[in-house]
Amino acid sequence: DVKVTQSSRYLVKRTGEKVFLECVQDMDHENMFWYRQDPGLGLRLIYFSYDVKMKEKGDIPEGYSVSREKKERFSLILESASTNQTSMYLCASRLPGYGHEQYFGPGTRLTVT
Amino acid sequence: EDKVVQSPLSLVVHEGDTVTLNCSYEVTNFRSLLWYKQEKKAPTFLFMLTSSGIEKKSGRLSSILDKKELFSILNITATQTGDSAVYLCAVEYNNNDMRFGAGTRLTVKP
Question: Which of A3, A21, A47, B28 sees the fewest Cβ atoms within 10 Å?
Fold first, then answer.
């Protein structure tokens, strides 16, 4: 049974704090993704990674960074959290190339106060 | 600009009704279109469509793609309360790009 896990389901942080969101997949997938999901806007891609130590900016990378030191783990970092980063964050993984569905984690609902 | 547009954004029906959800797209080098169902957790995969006119079916759900008119529909017949969810459409394009629509929130009332 394929599995993508995220470190927290709910998180509350203060403005200016550094925030780490962790994602782990056990399917040996090369590609991993971080999205944020907001009402009316759907899923928007923040960053993705094709392989270990590789990263590419998505549509909304500002205010975020990522780290992929191991194939199974993809971390999203908010260097200095702001209230407009309050959102649902979803991690996904899939096989490389096209024609493969993404497998999603359960999401982390982050509130920045 | 590449875009994926879903309609309607929300829909309320009663059990037993049939619903049709729409997804239109404008992308370069289309590869495939995917439908996901999202309840209060991770989106789960429903269908992947790559060829026009070939219906994919799973129980009461079915979907078809029209690559000439650049859209897909997801049909749900004899809806049940368990079908209540957000339905997401995603389009793969170019070499490794994927774009999601905003989703359609379906509520099925008993």
Answer: B28
- Listed as ranges, residues in chain B with pLDDT below 50 are none
CA nearest neighbour of B50 among B28, B72, B69: B72
Q: Are B24 and B68 in contact (CB under 8 A)?
A: no
The answer for B16, left when phi > 0, alpha when psi is -120 to 50, beta otherwise, is: left
Model confidence pLDDT, tens digit, residues A12-70: 999 999 999 999 999 999 999 999 999 888 899 999 999 999 999 999 999 999 999 99
Inter-chain contact B102–A42, Cβ cutoff 8 Å? yes
Q: What pLDDT, on the 0 to 100 scale, is given for residue B71?
A: 96
The residue of B96, B104, B105 whose CB has the most chain A CBs within 10 angstroms, and thus the best one to mutate to test that interface, is B96
Contact assignment for B32 to A99 by CB distance below 8 Å: yes
Close Cβ partners of A113 (under 8 Å, ≥ 6 residues apart): A12, A13, A14, A15, A83
Q: Which residues of B touch A54 (CB under 8 A)?
A: none
Question: Residue B108: how many CB atoms within 10 A of its CB?
Answer: 20
**Higher pLDDT pick, A63 / A100:** A63
